[in-house]
Design brief:
Length: 125
């Protein structure tokens, strides 16, 4: 068994600034339609949720990098953060052979200034 992890922290203002300056081009490059719908539903706090999902994608890249080894062309939107029926975030990853991955766990948190994500992966090898 192998456990890998990735973590990322980002300033919420940075994501807010990118969204306001670059707009739809930035949003559509990084986030899936489901993520956009979720974040936009949060009103004034939407930038915290965008930032947390951005951090989750970065943390996922770090946690799964051992598996990529130049074999896969993983894009931002290949990693999607969804919420289960209780509201717990979950990861969906496309374009990666997930056959030996047993479990992926994610934790997100944010405050006024920062968003952070932690991803752990349990695999057979």
């Amino acid at each position: 068994m192998k456990i890998t992890c990735g973590t990322d922290i980002i300033e919420i203002d940075r994501i807010e600034q990118d969204i306001k300056q670059i707009g739809e081009k930035f949003i559509n490059k990084i986030f899936t339609p489901n993520e956009v719908k979720y974040c936009e539903s949060k009103g004034k706090q939407k930038y915290q949720h965008y930032a947390a999902r951005f951090a989750a994608k970065e943390a996922t890249f770090k946690a799964i990098s051992w598996k990529l080894e130049n074999k896969y062309d993983l894009q931002w939107k290949d990693i999607e953060v969804i919420n289960d029926k209780e509201g717990k975030p979950q990861l969906k990853i496309k374009n990666v052979d997930m056959i030996d991955i047993q479990n992926i766990d994610i934790s997100l948190s944010h405050c006024r200034q920062y968003a952070i994500a932690y991803v752990s992966i349990l695999s057979e090898s």
